[in-house]
Amino acid sequence: MSQLSWIFKYGGRAHRSESASSAGPSQGPERVARPGQLGWLFRSRYTPIHGHPSQEKSSKRGGARPGAGRPRIDDKFPDAVSTASNYVQENGFQAHRRRRETTGNCGVSRRQIREMLLQSDPAFRKNSVSISTIGRWMVAPHKGVNAASLYTGAIDARIPTATNNRRKEDVNAHYYFCQVKYIMEFCSKFKDSTTVISCDNMNKVKVGVPAVSRYHQQGRFYPNNDAPDFEDHDFPNPGYLITPAGYMVLTPQIDQPNFTTDDLGRRHIGFPKSGPIRVINRVESFRPVNVIAHITDISLLHHQSPSPIVTAVLDGGSDFNVNFITNMFYYARLWRNLSLDALILTSFCPGYSAYNMIERGWATLAKKLAGVILSDKMPGESQSPFAQRNTLNAEERRSKEAQVFNDAMTALNSYWNNVKHNGFPVLSTSEECDGEVYRLFTDYQRVHRLVQQAGAKEIRQTENQDIFEELQFMFRHIDKRIGTVILAKCKDDFCEHCTSHPIEATEAMELIQGDGIPAPIPSRTHEGHFATFLEAVEFPRPTAYNEHMPKYGELRLGCCQHCKSFTFTSVTEKSRHNRLYHPTR
To answer: Count of CB atoms within 10 A of residue 382's CB?
Structure first.
């Protein structure tokens, strides 16, 4: 009989009893289940090994004695944790930035904390505290794993993830956020007649070196013998950059609620925050990326899905900024040429463009370029056209660079065209560097010089009369606020443009042509908050739209007394505006 079958036959006793051994013929030498042999069969708390000496000893002991074992360091030295916690606080990030006269650490390691404790109390030298024990005083790195129970969290500190969300505080930020939200809720209220586009340029994509920063985390698998390995120093060719211009058409989700409730219990109109992305790649040395390029792109998007009202959430850069007079001039041309009922342009507070909806899309696309190097060489050549500049004339070099950039943008499109962001597709195209390209207008240099630099006499000269009349037309239809511009059809029966293009979005235009889209107004029931859009539309409009904006009160520049609604943003703008366009008033 095998030892295993013998054990089960006789009830799992560890030793054969004498009665069992004398009950039948001898089965050989007495079999004893030695400690450790098949012991795993009997270690369950449901089937103890009865009569085994170790089991009897354990039952007599009844568990560990209270207070038995090595005492905890934090029990033996009650001040140890508080001393370590203070040391961590004194060497935090903000503490490091405030430090001026004394040197210190920016963050501390477990070893540094241990050395500090050993120096602060000689008793620690006799009762050594381990580095791992100090680590257990911190907050668990990941709270969702079993090992998190080993951390006490006595010190509110951990090794943080890298973030770059810090930005300069701006007292106007709250107002800007509210202003954008009002406009987004307005568009959702009249969603059947409104298209909303989030616009911005991505950081330039490099050619010849890693397309995006080498510090982007790799999120894909590579063969062990063929993983990305970059040069230890980047020496990019000057100007070898691609500028992606992006346009996200905000699209409501199927499950998007019509109304939401904030923390104060107030109702808001829900609005979309994502949608399909259209990317158009350009090389600025061949195709300038300015306001004309952007309004051309918006015009093409509009023709694909026309609507009487177009709203654009823009970046604050020079090629988008809604308060730049050159940009306003071309936005007015776009509104007129598309015969829109209204063109609404808004932006977030300067320095807060990260909140623009398309910025999340840029993060998705940038990840796809981690590890990618777009070639800066012609096929069959070992050097870039820039490296061959001493052997090529200007025309040959430009021709070769055009081909290099075209190939690079084709490759870039191939990386992005199979991508989805929040379930929406991305369509990436490019403008080739050679050949003809379509633009709505081609007079940027002339217009920019006249509206920004020309004097009152020059802008009224006969050859410039067309530009001056367009400016006057714009001032009659513009509602310019700080950070927002609204171009809308007027009620003037003598306005040729507005009478010849009847309004389509009648309900939305009743609000715009009436009291106008409200500007942020302080809440009457919640101090420190602005009223909601649904509340603000019922309130009387302030005398000046930006009356409750801190920047407006600081500037004290007011509005133009002759234009429909034109808020000044600087002393220079106010003096130039009055001198050029209202010199006799």
So the answer is: 8
Which is nearest to 191 in space by CA: 276, 301, 307, 340?
A: 307
Q: Are 199 and 320 in contact (CB under 8 A)?
A: yes
Q: pLDDT (tens digit, 9 = 90+) per residue, 485-540? A: 999 999 999 999 999 999 999 999 999 998 899 999 999 999 999 999 999 998 88
Sign (positive/negative) of CA torsion 529, 534, 540, 546? positive
SS3 percent helix, strand, coil of the chain, rounded to 5, is 40, 10, 50
pLDDT in tens, 425-474: 999 999 999 888 999 999 999 999 999 888 888 888 889 999 999 999 99
Question: Of 523, 559, 519, nearest to 541 (Cα)?
Answer: 519
Single-letter code of the amino acid located at 517:
I
Position 150 scores a pLDDT of 86
Cβ neighbors of 291 (< 8 A, separation 6 or more) are 319, 320, 326, 327, 330, 331, 444
- 74-104 residue pLDDT tens: 677 777 888 888 888 888 877 655 554 555 6
Type of residue found at 16: R
What are the residues whose beta carbons fall under 8 Å from the beta carbon of 196, sequence distance 6 or more? Answer: 184, 187, 249, 250, 271, 272, 311, 312, 313
Contact 508/482 with Cβ under 8 angstroms? no
Residue 279 DSSP SS3: strand
In the chain, the N- to C-terminal Cα span, in Å, equals: 120
- Dist CA 80 CA 396 (whole Å): 73
Write out the DSSP string of 353-419: GGGSTHHHHHHHHHHHTTT-B---S-TT-SS-TTTTTTTS-HHHHHHHHHHHHHHHHHHHHHHHTT-
Neighbours of 86 (CB within 10 A): 13
pLDDT above 50: residue 477: yes
Strand partners, 486: 344, 479
Judge whether 290 and 301 are in contact, CB under 8 Å: no
- The model's pTM is 0.77
